[in-house]
Design brief:
With about 90 residues, the protein is α+β, with helices and mostly antiparallel strands. The chain has two helices and three strands; from the N terminus they run E-E-E-H-H. Strands 1-2-3 form a three-stranded antiparallel β-sheet. Helix 1 packs across helix 2.
Length: about 90
């Protein structure tokens, strides 16, 4: 699951999160994130993204930080708990 490392996406699109599933890619554990792509043709095309466990952890932390920046208190509390677990 090596991808280019950069901070800006090649394109931005609109999607609705559907579900997350655990799975195996050979011997590796992965998380499959399913989305409904709203602005694709045909509309409402679904797409699955296979992510490593570390990438999903990074995604969760990043999403919680983004929610916290909007004043979301549950996200703020979850981030505190996660930071305590790292000690």
């Amino acid at each position: 699951m090596d991808g280019k490392s950069h901070s800006e996406p090649d394109f931005t699109t609109v999607a609705h999160f559907l579900k997350a599933r655990s799975g195996l890619d050979g011997p590796k554990e992965v998380i499959l994130l399913d989305f409904e792509m709203v602005d694709f043709d045909p509309p409402l095309t679904s797409m699955g993204m296979k992510c490593s466990l570390n990438d999903v952890r990074k995604l969760v932390h990043t999403c919680l930080a983004a929610l916290k920046s909007f004043g979301d208190q549950p996200a703020s509390q979850l981030l505190k708990v996660l930071k305590q677990g790292k000690r």
